[in-house]
Amino acid sequence: MGIVFNKGGIFTTVQDYGRMGYQNLGFHVCGAMDRHSFWVANLLVDNKDREAVLEFTICGPTLYFTSDTVICITGGDFDPRINGEPVPMYAAVEVKKGDELEMGFCRSGTWGYIAFAGGLDVPVVMGSRSTDIKCGLGGYKGRQIKDGDEIEFLSNVKTLHLMKERRLEIPDYSQPVVELRVTMGPQDDHFTTEGIHTFLLSEYTVTSQCDRMGYRLEGPVIEHNDLGADIISDGIAKGAIQVPSSGQPIIMMSDRQTLGGYTKIANVISVDLARLAQCRYPQKVKFTRVSVEEAQRIYVMERERLKLLNERFIKTSILHRLFNAWKN
């Protein structure tokens, strides 16, 4: 009752929201790179919002299903096909025992997600099912998926109420320039006034040196003042923008180290990290300063939007069941 990986893909792992509360012990947070796609995938298959999913990049996996289930594919466009036929993305899809789902090479975006109704049966390690590759724990045997691996489902969900309504609009990841809102600091006092202006007024190119640990950008040099680029190592949040002595920014992502000794000029707000994660070479990004209060307001609005979506599916499902009960 689950899936067999006929092909593991290039970098397929099990991820959930992340392993919270252990950075002080040196463990990575991990979790989905694009939390929005992760949340939506679980929402559309009626899972809890932090249920584990498959995450992949560049070239996705090929799955053989050993039981009926319902799936949702979100994130970048990996040209998904079941038994050779195209599969809609951002929609709940019924899959039958014996079906084969093939994820191809990424045509837009960078990271893809597959959620399974009922969830994936992998161990919970320190409160999370996320894979920590560097520490070799969590997910499927603490590593990325390989050909021939098998994962069972936590429960056998064969269909959901109102399948046709369980779909959302597909995001557009093709913009040549992506705007990222940032809060300044904590070491913005290590940069000259000109350096701050350069950071906020310039466009930076997403390089090919991007992975789950961080995204390296290339563009105009961000100038430090006499305090320099090095600091006593301190904690690193997801979205922190480090600027080493080269003056080229590095944005820290899900598998970031817990501590770092480079100055952090700003932090990408959490809502915009999903758009950053789906950027690829040679897309450009530009930074816009917002206050902490504004970042919090944007976050609350996003959570409320997802909450309303969830409530819409729940209420419609209840009405559907009541109508069927009355009709019968």
Structure description:
- The protein has 328 residues and is α+β, with helices and mostly antiparallel strands.
- The protein folds into two domains: 164 residues, no CATH class; 114 residues, Beta Barrel (Cyclophilin), CATH 2.40.100.10.
- Helices cover 18% and strands 30% of the residues.
- The protein is built from four helices and 19 strands.
- The strands form three sheets. It has a seven-stranded mixed β-barrel with strand order 12-18-16-17-14-13-19. Strands 7-6-9-4-1-11 form a six-stranded antiparallel beta sheet, with no helix packed on it.
- α1 packs parallel to α4.
- It is elongated.
Number of domains: 2
Major sheet strand order: 12-18-16-17-14-13-19
Shape: elongated
Low-confidence stretches: none
Count of DSSP helices? Answer: 4
Strand content: 25-35%
What is the end-to-end distance? Answer: 32 Å
Report the mean per-residue pLDDT as an integer: 93
- Structural class call reads alpha+beta
Radius of gyration: 21 Å
Helix-residue proportion: 10-25%
What is the string of SSEs from the N terminus onward?
Answer: EEHEEEEEEEEEEHEEEEEEHEH
Oligomer: single chain
Write down how many β-strands occur, each being a DSSP E stretch of 2 or more residues: 19
Biggest β-sheet description: 7 strands, mixed, barrel
